[in-house]
Task: inverse folding
């Protein structure tokens, strides 16, 4: 995320102490979380990712590592919302109104990973009247908020289950429509706000509203590794990173680059990945067996499996991908039965066991 | 468990013998004082890297003394800021500086307290009263070492250490976990004599030397393994704990101006960081919550420091090996060190079962009340004058006035102020006051009320929770059996937590109905003070045989119960009495009338019927 001082200056020279993020490929274990994040990076239409789990398991670390990992994206240089030069249909009204000459000027920027702090005001999230311009020249102009910043990137809400209700309502609305509509303070602005919503939290501190839960395509549950060797590795890498960040980044640069190439290749491959009838049928049967509400679960499962197949370098979705993505795609969609002691993951595993892994 | 009992017996023995116990207490307090001194030095060495200190204290002279000492150690140049629990976002994160904005006619942004403390220390008093959201915001700043302002996209550095003074008394009142988790050092000043904190263990000059030493300290894999194993043996899941312990060990070596970590450094780290976080007593048998262990550390040691395996090589914990013999791997000295600072009652807690351990509460108690009671959910900004139930929104007012300034200035006489605000510009923020409901189950867990009802009630509570989080409501459970009533589940919205608390709820014994009602009354009062609307759901057959003072006898017991019920009526709590007797008898009905509760005989109710009944009452 770019750091912008009120004066408009940018760059690391102002804040020399805020260094680079911990590299994604150096995160130990937590494969399901990493896989889920990679899948939505390959195909953002899967929807958001919800990460529920213990403290100190590296949730925030993984998400903050994404910006450095993902290949930079092309934007129209002048655009405040980072419109994609290649997709005219998704442009904001400002870009559409630009002279063609300006439309053609593009630049590469890192994928935004925007932190939405719990304390954010509605103004900050939605955007507000630009007070400076209003006071000085009497012009009503719109100052974009976090939703604008997150366009074509990730919006990260830590402790999402503690988010105030009116912000939750707002997120649900924008995440569903992909557009931020501002009608306040005499402003009438709409701009694209398509982002991958990533939420994390600890279920011990409160439940998530079902409407918001539904907006997340995938949900993962993470735990601290129980293996001492893994724990030691986590602590050692983190310690090394904190003490000698530059050396650590150099050690991991190759892995990061390899991971990035895989993502780029998978994105290219994605459109060509076939989903056979057998795979569709398997997904539908599984959803019926575990009793998910609505069709969204099925759709998400197929999309996630397709993204994973692309990542695996396959040309068709196979049972391996479906089985791997079924728990994250479905576990938060099961109808709650608090009297059933078995967790959602177990219920899905059981259903897969009953159904068999073979497609067809 | 056997171990814990042994310890309890030893303590009982000592108590019988009299004298040694006093000495023990004095020794323990002196040890705590020593830890407090060391903690101050470690923290002052590099506040931001250590994260901070939680100080359990009753805010007496010892605490003042410790703070003074810390102040002497911290660099004079370091900013020190006090953070009151009810600070507003604007002041915390930064925002529009109204005075300067009005004076200059252009928006001026002021730094918030978090950014002001950059490079220094924040002192948070009454950490146990800190609302969840504030705790989360401060925790995020501790993580990212920066703060995102509330007003626009400005991220500012905020690298600070936090001292959280926690003067909570009850189990449920303590520094929010989200913060405590990130603060390496946990010290306890209870019983510490201020004279034991007279002189700092180190002076500023030595501290500066130690600071320059920090970068050169070597840490080998064995030290990390030792800390990780010790943390696991203490039942600590979070990997922040061993990481912070490592930093503390390194700081201890630096304070000694050594280049290599030694055993004493690791032990200090175990005492200051791991012990207070322990969830199980380290070498207790693995019967309760088995400390996670494995047999693999030697493998990891064989890898050289720089050749790290790619992440995909590591497998998740799906098939973690069964707990191995902990004593073989975990450094016994570290365990002994950690045991010195176990949280009070942990040993006893294990003997009683897990449910009695202090559980995570996100926040102190005050925050919710103040937010809910005074303002509720902001329901939007409208133009209009401030009246009851709304508050002038100055920024919005300025925004409304802003576009007209040129025009108005042109019309105004010479001496016009920079910004001309007229009455029609006034904007107010409206707050919608929707009071949350807290359903308080008062559960007869005695033998007479038949233990089989317990399963139904547990089910009903869980069902209600599953439903009620849609409405953001809360559920609490009080149970009474034997001689007394106890709070089984403090008000919560968390299904996970409820399940765990209820799972361990025992049944059987006598029926202290009056005590149950009294505790319920007390709790309902608390809930009401926090801005919640309590709904009492009493599940009983109306039989009572233990009086308020704990003595047996039906007649007294009934009198007391009726008295308690009439008190509840006076407090005018909404209530529902569910008669659980197989053949509904007048007893429960009389009780319901006394407390003016809705009476509902449900002889064959299952969990779903119960949940339905409660929902229709709310």
Result:
């Amino acid at each position: 995320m770019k750091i912008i001082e009120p004066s408009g200056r940018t760059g690391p020279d102002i804040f020399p102490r805020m260094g680079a993020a911990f590299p994604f490929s150096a995160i130990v274990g937590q494969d399901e979380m990493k896989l889920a994040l990679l899948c939505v990076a390959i195909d953002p239409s899967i929807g958001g990712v919800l990460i529920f789990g213990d403290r100190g398991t590296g949730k925030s670390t993984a998400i903050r590592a994404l910006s450095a990992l993902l290949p930079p994206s092309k934007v129209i240089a002048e655009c405040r919302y980072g419109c994609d030069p290649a997709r005219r249909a998704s442009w904001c009204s400002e870009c559409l109104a630009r002279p063609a000459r300006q439309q053609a000027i593009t630049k590469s920027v890192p994928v935004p990973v925007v932190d939405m702090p719990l304390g954010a005001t509605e103004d900050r999230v939605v955007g507000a009247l630009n007070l400076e311009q209003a006071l000085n020249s009497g012009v009503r102009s719109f100052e974009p908020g976090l939703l604008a910043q997150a366009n074509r990137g990730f919006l990260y809400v830590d402790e999402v289950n503690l988010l105030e209700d009116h912000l939750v309502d707002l997120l649900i609305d924008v995440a569903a429509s992909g557009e931020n509509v501002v009608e306040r303070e005499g402003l009438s602005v709409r701009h694209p706000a398509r982002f991958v919503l990533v939420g994390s939290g600890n279920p011990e501190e409160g439940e998530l509203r079902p409407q918001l839960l539904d907006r997340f395509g995938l949900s993962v549950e993470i735990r601290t590794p129980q293996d001492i060797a893994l724990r030691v590795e986590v602590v050692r890498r983190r310690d090394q990173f904190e003490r000698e960040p530059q050396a650590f980044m150099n050690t991991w640069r190759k892995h990061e680059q390899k991971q990035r190439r895989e993502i780029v290749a998978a994105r290219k491959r994605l459109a060509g990945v076939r989903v056979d009838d057998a795979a569709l049928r398997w997904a539908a049967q599984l959803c019926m067996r575990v009793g998910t509400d609505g069709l969204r679960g099925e759709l998400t499962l197929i999309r996630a499996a397709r993204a994973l197949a692309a990542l695996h370098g396959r040309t068709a979705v196979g049972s391996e991908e479906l089985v791997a993505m079924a728990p994250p795609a479905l576990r938060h969609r099961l109808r709650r039965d608090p009297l059933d002691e078995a967790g959602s993951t177990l219920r899905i595993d059981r259903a897969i066991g009953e159904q068999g892994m073979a497609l067809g | 468990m056997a171990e814990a009992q042994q310890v309890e017996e030893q303590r009982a023995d000592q108590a019988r013998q009299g004298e040694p116990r006093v000495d023990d207490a004095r020794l323990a307090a002196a040890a705590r004082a020593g830890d407090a001194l060391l903690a101050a030095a470690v923290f002052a060495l590099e506040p931001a890297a250590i994260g901070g200190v939680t100080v359990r204290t009753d805010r007496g002279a010892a605490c003042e003394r410790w703070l003074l000492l810390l102040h002497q150690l911290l660099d004079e140049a370091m900013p020190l800021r006090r953070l009151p629990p009810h600070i507003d976002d604007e002041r915390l994160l930064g925002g529009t500086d109204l005075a300067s904005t009005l004076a200059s006619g252009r928006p001026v942004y002021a730094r918030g307290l978090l950014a002001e403390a950059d490079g220094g220390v924040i002192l948070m008093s009454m950490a146990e009263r800190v609302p969840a959201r504030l705790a989360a915001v401060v925790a995020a700043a501790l993580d990212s070492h920066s703060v995102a302002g509330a007003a626009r996209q400005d991220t500012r550095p905020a690298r600070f250490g936090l001292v959280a003074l926690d003067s909570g008394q009850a189990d449920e009142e303590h520094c929010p976990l989200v913060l405590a988790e990130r603060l390496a050092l946990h010290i306890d000043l209870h019983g510490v004599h201020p004279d034991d904190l007279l002189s700092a263990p180190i002076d500023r000059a030595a501290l500066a030397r130690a600071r320059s030493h920090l970068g050169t300290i070597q840490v080998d894999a064995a030290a990390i393994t030792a800390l990780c194993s010790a943390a696991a043996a203490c039942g600590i899941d979070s990997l922040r704990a061993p990481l912070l312990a490592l930093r503390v060990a390194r700081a201890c070596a630096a304070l000694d101006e050594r280049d290599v970590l030694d055993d004493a450094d690791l032990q200090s780290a175990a005492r200051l960081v791991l012990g207070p976080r322990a969830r199980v007593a380290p070498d207790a048998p693995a019967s309760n919550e088995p400390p996670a262990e494995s047999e693999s550390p030697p493998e990891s040691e064989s890898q050289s420091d720089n050749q790290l395996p790619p992440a995909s090589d590591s497998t998740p914990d799906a098939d973690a090996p069964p707990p191995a013999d902990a004593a073989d791997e975990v450094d016994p000295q570290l365990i002994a060190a950690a045991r010195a600072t176990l949280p009070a009652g942990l040993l006893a807690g294990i003997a009683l079962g897990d449910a009695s351990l202090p559980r995570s509460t996100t926040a102190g108690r005050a925050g919710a009340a103040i937010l809910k009671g005074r303002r509720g959910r902001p329901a939007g900004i409208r133009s209009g004058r401030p009246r009851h139930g709304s508050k002038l929104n100055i920024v919005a007012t300025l925004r409304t006035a802003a576009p007209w300034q040129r025009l108005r200035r042109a019309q105004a006489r010479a001496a016009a102020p920079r910004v001309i605000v007229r009455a029609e510009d006034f904007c107010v923020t409206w707050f919608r006051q929707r009071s949350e409901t807290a359903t308080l189950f008062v559960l007869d867990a005695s033998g007479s009320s038949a233990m089989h009802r317990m399963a139904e009630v547990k089910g009903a509570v869980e069902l209600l929770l599953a439903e009620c989080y849609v409405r953001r409501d809360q559920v609490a459970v009080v149970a009474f059996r034997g001689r007394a009533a106890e709070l089984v589940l403090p008000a919560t919205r968390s299904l996970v937590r409820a399940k765990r608390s209820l799972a361990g709820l025992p049944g059987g014994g006598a029926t202290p109905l009056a005590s149950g009602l009294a505790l319920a009354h007390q709790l309902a009062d608390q809930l009401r003070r926090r801005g919640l609307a309590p709904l009492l759901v009493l599940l009983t057959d109306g039989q009572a045989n233990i009086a308020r003072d704990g003595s047996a006898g039906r007649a007294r017991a009934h009198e007391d119960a009726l008295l308690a019920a009439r008190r509840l009526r006076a407090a005018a709590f909404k209530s529902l009495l569910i008669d659980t007797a197989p053949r509904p008898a007048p007893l429960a009905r009389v009780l319901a009338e006394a407390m003016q509760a809705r009476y509902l005989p449900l002889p064959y109710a299952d969990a779903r019927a119960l949940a339905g009944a409660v929902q229709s009452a709310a």
